[in-house]
Each structure stands twice: as C-alpha cells, then as structure tokens.
Design a protein that fits this description.
This protein is of the alpha+beta class. It binds adenosine-5'-diphosphate and magnesium ion.
C-alpha cells in the first residue's frame, strides 16, 4: 500500500539541510515510526511525477547498510519521502555530542559504509553522490546505514544545490567538472573518516596562520585561467546544479572578498568556499595520523587525487583496517 500524507502524524523535527527538512513521524495505520523528508521541487508537475516514478527503485533496495524506503508522495510543490527512522541520528550529531569516535567505531563505520556503497553499485548501479557524516545514520541496535543517495536523476537536477556552511566533501575531479563515479564517493568517505576521527572538518584550520595586521582584506579573483579551471575551451559538462562550482568550473569570473580578522596571536582563519575548493584541487590531501598505520593507509587510499589510481569501495574492503574490523565483535549500541 502507498503511504498517504494524512496517515502521518508529526512527532518531532529532526533537522534540515540542502534539499529539505526531515521530521520524525508515525504512520498511524501501521503504527510505524518513520523519518519523513520534505523536498521543495520548483519544477512543473510532470517533472514531479517523473521524480516520483524514479524513486520507486528504492522499493527494491534492501540491505543492512542502507536505510529502508517506505514510500513517497506529492504534496503541493513538495515531494515527501518516508524512510526508516534511525533513533541515534546521524554521525555529525553524534560527534558533536560525544566527540570523536574511537578506533573500533571508526573501523565499523568504514566497513558499513563500504558495504552500503558496494551494495548500491553492484546490485543497482547507484552512485551515492552525497557521502558525508550527516548521511550516515545509527540506531540503537548498533546498525550503521547510508541515506540520501542519488537514485533519481530528475531529483538531483531539481534540488537547487547550495553549499550550506563551508564543508565540502566533493572530490577534486568533481570540483573540476568531471563525471561522478563510484570513486568520487570514496573521496568523500576519506574526508568523512578524518572528520569523525578528529571531531572536526579536516580542512577547517588550513588557513591557520600568523599575521601581524589587523583585519586584513584580500581580494580573490577566480576566472577561466585560474588553477581551478582546467581550460576555457574544454568546458566541463558541469552540473547546472553544482551551486558555487558553476562559476568556477565554467570559467565565469568571480570576485570574492575574504576578510581575515587577525588579532596579534595565532587565529583560526575561516576558509571561504572558493579557497576550500581551490585547496582541494591544488594541495596535498589531508592525512590521518591519529589511529595508527591501518587507519592512515585506509584514508590515504580514499584520498588519492588521481581517480584512476583511487580504489573502488569494493577494493577498499580488502584493506587491513576493514579486515581487522571484521574480526572484532563491537557492540556499537553500547558505545554510541
Ligand atoms: P543534511 O544531510 O545535509 O544534514 P537532511 O535534510 O538530509 O540534511 O537531513 C537533516 C537531518 O535530519 C540530518 O542531519 C539527520 O540528523 C536527520 N535525519 C535525516 N534522515 C534521518 C533518518 N532517517 N533518521 C533519523 N534522522 C535523520
Ligand atoms: Mg541528508
């Protein structure tokens, strides 16, 4: 049976992000608690119906590492998606509340995410496209599952993609306008793994620097000839959806003022989104030194900048970190 909006009672607001808002609801006919995501779609109703059709593939996704899908329906200009409610919430909230994860939890998360990505790709040829801590969910059974993967091309096109905050898990090749592949998800996993190990976004204090001046103001101009854009002639078939990157990858001149307040002592400079994108493309990837060799090797593999050399999720399952995690019986529900 299809789910109808009038069968749902809202219990709580869970949060909101790029695409919409998420509420905790109860489906009264079945007495099932669910998470309902409401997404505003600006397109005409034929497009909305098309998205609804494309979402039906979710009814065929069944894995211990993927959120269950219960159904979707249209409501005015919105699409509502009902999915499994995960009662411990997302990893970003968990680390905000409990701090960085332990080494054992780190290994279990890597294992679960890789199994989820491998399932999606091997069985359904689905690339996730949005691996980040807020799309990795935990429940009190100790399960770790992925949500918010890109099943509907029309839906991806219809969500006006804006960078909320300044975190970006986007791979260097994506920033430069290349096609998404399953290896782009691997990059995002690498950034995610460092973030949950440190309890903060790995690029956050990149601009940490000493400066004598007060309130220095830099003008940063990016254009077609800047290092971000490979060439003006080969315009990447870039996403008409990639928010800030449109201007960058398509070579539109952009000017941005970056104000760094620099009191006498060492301060954390705030990186603008453009600085960050440029940094990801041009500099060495971040590394993880905290948890020893297996964790470090794993993250190094995820963050290989050359897509051709970067492993797939399936290949990463062979890594020592994962082999070690497989041997351990971790009761995640008691830890998190
Ligand atoms: P984002 O993923 O960018 O944070 P979303 O709109 O996808 O934005 O989700 C908002 C928040 O809702 C997430 O950060 C997460 O904490 C929570 N959430 C999303 N889906 C679920 C779910 N199935 N169960 C529990 N919490 C969820
Ligand atoms: Mg999400």
């Amino acid at each position: 049976k299809e789910i109808r909006g009038d069968e749902l009672k809202v219990l709580d607001e869970l949060g909101s992000g790029n695409g919409g808002t998420v509420s905790k609801v109860v489906h009264e006919p079945s007495n099932t608690t669910m998470a309902k995501k409401t997404i505003l779609i600006e397109s005409q109703s034929p497009i909305r119906r098309q998205i609804l059709r494309e979402l039906q593939i979710l009814h065929h996704c069944h894995s211990d590492y993927i959120i269950e899908f219960y159904g979707a329906y249209l409501e005015g200009p919105h699409i509502c998606m009902c999915m499994e409610y995960m009662d411990r919430g997302s990893l970003d909230r968990i680390i905000r509340k409990h701090g960085p994860v332990s080494y054992d939890v780190f290994g279990q998360i890597a294992l679960s995410v890789l199994r989820g990505l491998t399932y999606l790709y091997d069985v359904h040829r689905i690339i996730h496209r949005d691996v980040k801590p807020s799309n990795i969910l935990i429940n009190s059974k100790g399960q770790i599952k992925l949500c918010d993967f890109g099943v509907s091309g029309e839906l991806i096109n219809s969500i006006a993609d804006t960078f909320v905050g300044t975190s970006t898990y986007m791979s260097p090749e994506r920033i430069q306008g290349a096609q998404y592949t399953v290896k782009s998800d691997v990059w995002s996993l690498g950034i995610t793994m460092i973030e949950i190990a440190l309890g903060r976004f790995p690029f956050a204090d990149v601009e940490e620097e000493e400066s004598e001046e007060e309130g220095r103001e830099d003008d940063l101009t990016l254009n077609a000839n800047s290092t971000l854009s490979p060439s003006n002639a080969t315009r990447p078939r870039a996403s008409s959806r990639a928010g800030t990157t449109i201007g960058v990858t398509q070579g539109v001149a952009m000017k941005q003022s970056v104000k760094t307040h620099a009191p006498k002592k060492k301060t954390k400079g705030v990186m603008s989104i453009l600085d960050l994108l440029q940094f990801i493309v041009n500099e060495d990837p971040p590394r993880l030194t905290k948890f020893g060799k297996n964790a470090q090797d794993f993250v190094d593999k995820c963050l290989i900048k050359d897509v051709k050399l970067r492993p797939t999720p399936k290949q990463l399952l062979e890594q020592n970190l994962i082999q070690e995690a497989l041997k351990k019986e971790i009761k995640l529900n008691e830890i998190l």
